[in-house]
């Protein structure tokens, strides 16, 4: 059935913020001490692990490509993978609902929607850092400076902002739908048990979404979908060598040129220690790139038009610290590492000059 080892681990991480939300938001009369604020910060730090399971659809795609029978896919693979994703996202929905309920009980119902939207935005950034930059929640404790620097760079680049914006819209829409389903189920349980009273559990009326909140969610979601359009593309791989100059200016990097018999190497060194080497053919086309440094460069910009192919070509289920090896007729990607020590390379086989061995791309 493929590698399902990610399911129990990622589900455990998804349930962690749910457990924290129960402890933090169950009593609105408790005094918010420094311990409560510390717990809330930890809650926000681990919360992206729950909606992160939406991106684990890549594991399902890989398993579907493994040539399993239709019976096995239908009866085991689909229920297992989709069930894990649904449970993880429901943990996110309930966690955020608990937080909103807490805000409402403190006399600020007008802030509930804005609190939820800010939470979605933070989680969208966290999902990007986890899926593309390969950070974990505990990296905030082990190396907070590196995480903050990466987040700052992400927020100042156009392509990551588009991905984060799209993720934010998806989280907002999915959350709204799942919230309605969850509230409907809770009200159904309450109706079955009878009206809430002393000793009789029920759904607080304050947990419902009023018409004003629903309208604000709808309007904001539509506006965000309109705003999240593709930005400026800094395509590198497969582009002309003019993109190297554009990257040098954008990254404010130092540039070094090495000329070989059948190709030229343009090396860029950024202020934060990332070294990017771009291999240019005699036809002035970038046929390969390699990098090393304390973090992964922005692959959406480095791969340009080949980034969607990179996303769709994971040959194995990808864990957060696993090496990535992709070999296709159109794109080859190899990268590995951990925070503070990443390296990788990528090239387009059809653009590599015939006299050049691919081993030089490193």
Brief digest:
The protein is of the alpha+beta class and 362 residues long. The chain has helices at residues 6-25, 34-46, 57-64, 70-105, 112-131, 139-142, 144-155, 158-193, 211-227, 242-251, 299-303, 307-312; strands at residues 254-259, 264-269, 275-280, 286-293, 324-327, 332-338, 341-347.
List its salient traits:
2 domains; seven-stranded antiparallel sheet; 362 residues; alpha+beta
How would you characterize the overall build of this protein?
- The chain folds into two domains: 6-227, no CATH class; 242-360, no CATH class.
- Helix content is 52%, strand content 12%.
- It has twelve helices and seven strands.
- It is globular and about 80 Å long.
Give the terminus-to-terminus CA distance. Answer: 35 Å
How many distinct folded domains?
2
Number of helices: 12
Indicate the proportion of strand residues.
5-15%
List the strand order in the largest sheet.
Answer: 1-2-3-4-7-6-5
Query: How does the helix and strand content classify structurally?
Result: alpha+beta
Q: How can the largest sheet be summarized? A: 7 strands, antiparallel
Overall number of strands: 7
| Poorly predicted tracts of residues | 195-209, 214-235
Note the quaternary state here.
single chain
Mean pLDDT: 76
Query: From N to C, what is the helix and strand string?
Result: HHHHHHHHHHEEEEHHEEE
Shape: globular
Q: Considering DSSP H and I runs of 4 or more, what fraction of the residues is helical?
A: 40-55%
Integer-rounded radius of gyration: 24 Å
